[in-house]
Amino acid sequence: MSKKIIIILILLFLILPITLFSSTGKTSNSSNTITKTYKLKYISPKEVFLILKPYAFRFSYTHSSPYITVVISKNNVKKFEEELRKLDKPKKNILFKVYTIIASKQKIGERIKDPELSPIVKEIKSLFSFKSYKLDGISSIIVKERSDYSKIKLTSSYNLRLTIDRVKIEEGENGKIIDFRFFLKSKKRERYGNKDPYETLISSQTSVKNNTFFVAGVSSLGNNGCSIILVFKVRIL
Fold first, then answer.
1. Domain limits at 83?
2. Is residue 44 part of a domain?
3. Is the CB of residue 141 less than 8 Å from the CB of residue 164?
4. Residues 232, 118 share a domain
5. Is the pLDDT confidence value at 2 over 60?
6. What's the domain count of the chain?
7. CA-to-CA distance for 166 and 193, rounded, in angstroms?
8. pLDDT tens, position by position, 150-194
9. pLDDT confidence of residue 148
């Protein structure tokens, strides 16, 4: 056997096993798989890949095209297309109304007079044992469903920034639920080198019923005995 034939056989031995695997690392049985192409209207192919990749063996797409091609098990096609229909629809806008409330261990003689906040103030007083509360500021930001990071500098007597991401709408037992992650940060007095000049006060992955108030958390503001309470009111537009 010539050296040329031996080299060809070695190359085939190395290459053939690779073709048995998909981009997700799963093996595929050609008798039970099909290749299908979908044209997307409202969602990007990358989003489809990131969310639905457990359903298919391989995804092919480009960022400049609305088409995505999948190699998928015939048994998964129905479920894949059901989930795709849920995703590929117009993204809704969601209004986040953000309230910052300053709580103090001392009586400061101020009261929160906003009538809309009366129910949540009553709840806050039942949760915490501060002696007084005052409204620090009200801010608003509109975030698109399933969008990337959205940031806002809050209206506040403190230097506060809020980041919201991973926003999605789900169906709950008693109506729509908005699920999201947030980070409330305050600017540090000193900055060291290339480190983030903001420190995180409150952060969480949470869910809130549509068009309702939600007490997101509380954080100390230093040695003056004051704390900040973060409140959201979230509404689908």
1. 23-87
2. yes
3. yes
4. yes
5. no
6. 2
7. 30
8. 999 999 999 999 999 999 898 888 889 999 999 999 987 665 566
9. 79
